[in-house]
Amino acid sequence: MTHHNSGKQIVAHAALSYVQSGMTLGLGTGSTVHYFLEELKRCVREGLHIQGIPTSKQTEKLAEAYGIPLTDFSKVTKIDVAIDGADEVDPDFQLMKGGGGSLVREKIVAEAADKRIIIVDNTKSVDKLGRFPLPVEVVPFGWQKTASYLERFGCTPVLRKVNQQPFVSDNGNYILDCAFGSIEHPKTLHGQLKQLVGVVETGLFIDMTDIVLTANNGVVERQIK
Ligand SMILES: O=C(CO)[C@H](O)[C@H](O)COP(=O)(O)O
Predict the structure, then answer these.
(1) Is the ipTM of this complex over 0.85?
(2) Residue 213 — φ and ψ, nearest 5°?
(3) Residue 97 CA: which ligand 1 atom is closest?
(4) Per-residue pLDDT tens digits for 26-74
(5) Distance of alpha carbon 73 from its chain centroid, rounded?
(6) Domains in the chain, ordered, with CATH?
(7) Exposed/middle/buried for 47, CB within 10 Å: 0-12, 13-18, 19+?
(8) Which residues does the Swiss-Prot or TrEMBL record annotate as the active site (predicted)?
(9) Which residues are the active-site residues?
């Protein structure tokens, strides 16, 4: 078999089967979601009526350029289906997200959604989360102190930078990328980190996924919680 499409493209296309006219969609962030937005652009042009809530300024800009109608939480109270990527997916459907720095808005959208669909290629499937450094969004004030508290949990926090300057999230915060190596108890760790005053949110998405679509050698594998 020849594969003209990347795994990311294939799962992005497969996610369309969960979209129906009239829906409010959560629009995730990242390169896999970018392919999904391209699919959505085509469908909208062909007459599909949906509205999206973007999880980042990046997605907002793309959606606007693609003519995908957008809305926000002042106009809708719930999201029918949220589609997003992930950095790691474990066998229990727990996720590591935030590689793109949009974890807070992604989590708010996932929490508000009736159905959460994660689209990934098979490089994201792991037995245990933690190979990818855990992104933790922190308040800029005193971030050095927050980093030192995070370190006590067995990681090495690194301030995310762009062009030698701290990366600033859409919410005006910093990201500390915390290399744990392997996370034995993601739910417990998330709960502990959340208790730190300076921590806004962690990239651990616990029990927030309903369906995982994984591209495996050109085939979409569908796992349902
Ligand atoms: O969590 C995310 C952004 O905060 C993305 O979903 C994650 O980084 C996956 O990105 P990509 O689809 O480009 O591999």
Answers:
(1) yes
(2) -110, 120
(3) 1
(4) 999 999 999 999 999 999 999 999 999 999 999 999 999 999 999 999 9
(5) 18
(6) 7-122+206-218 (3.40.50.1360), 134-202 (3.30.70.260)
(7) exposed
(8) 106 (proton acceptor)
(9) 106
